[in-house]
User: Fold these one by one.
Assistant:
Number 1:
Amino acid sequence: MSSILGSCHCGRVKWESIGDIETVVRCYCSICRKTQGGDYGVWVVVPAKGFSILEGADHINKYEGTNVSSKKYCSVCGTTVHCTNGNHYPGYMLLARGTIDEGNELSTKIQVYTQHKYEWIDVLKDSPAVF
Ligand SMILES: [Zn+2]
Ligand SMILES: [Zn+2]
């Protein structure tokens, strides 16, 4: 059982996740690239039932990316609060590692959609590619 805290860049929205971390996934898909603005997304997968907003709920907006995936974000600074992926992780929330206050402690465990990565990005040697 662990507790992790996250917050957006402007500081208006703060959240907490209580419960065992399922995994930490680096995803190379095009949705992660677009919605996170990076070469890949890195997600800390936590049980949805242990997630709660501590401050700033009024500032959260929702974007429905697909019929099973959505993203909530701070309407002031745009930082991702969490995503859901009903396809691969029903019942879980995906927290962007960069938004977690102690993200340095959460190293990547698995990789997915490596076939979609930019060709000049090296996959991690010690993390299995699972789909
Ligand atoms: Zn913010
Ligand atoms: Zn992805």
Number 2:
Amino acid sequence: MVKVNFYRKVSSFLALVCGFVCSLCHALPNGEYMPLEMVAKEHLLRMPINRPDRVVLRGDNIELSFRSGSLAFHANGVLVPFGFFTETKCGKLCVSYSDYVAHLRPFFTMQHRSSVKKAVIVLDPGHGGRAEGALSATGLKEKTVTLDICQRLARILERQGHIVYLTRNSDTYVELEDRTKFANQKSPALFLSVHCNAAKSKSARGIETFALTPHGQPSQHQVKSLQSDLKPCVGNKFDAENLILAYAIQGAVLKKIGCVDRGVKHACFHVFRGLNCPGALAELEFLSHPIEAKKLASSNHRQDLAQGLADGITSFLKCHIPS
Ligand SMILES: [Zn+2]
């Protein structure tokens, strides 16, 4: 467990080791950067690499890898974003305190359960009805692929004993607010929205998984940040769980199908904001990429994607994050 006065301890430790000439020590009381060495000490992690430009932290089930001047790090090989650049200060690789809270601490506060209980899960096949979503060059519609993958995923999860609800089970249009409302009515253990990606560039490929932007952090999604995005919302109650769910989904799908890792990302998607449970949105490959679109048309590949998502959900359900 992270101690309540951890931040104060970091400040006083730095004041001791750097002396009062160091600008970092003066900056810290206002909440700036902290060295990864302190994270290692606090969470009893090993540091097989500890250089000013590169650090690796290792625990029993986790390896985190950092580089100086980066807006991301790797958690067990999965790309996870930072809101602010890492920096080398006083010869030590540091992260912003905001990123420590939003992106590192959740990995250390997880506790593993030995068995997965029967869980209620809400799946949200993206688009539907008049909202067709992305379209491949051969005419494959995103709304068709997302529904098929969610129905396959539901069958896998039900076989495992879970209770699964879909926000739509046919080619119908459902408003975003109604998807969130439906999920909240079921009080689920988690909500997963499933989409396929598309881009103007035909070379864009791979998968990415979104979680709601943690309070006080910037979004990675291209849509303009709205002023309302900066205000905390109901979904921010689950900032730590949202990150771990997105990370678990991204890691498991990558492991299953071995495609390009575009990383975990943050966005204030409407469907997340009012959600009263942990939530994530998976963007499973690009319908605009000729090879990926061809794969998405194959039922074997959709089954693999569904299995990857199920593995991610199972892995998330084995984690318990103390509130
Ligand atoms: Zn979509």
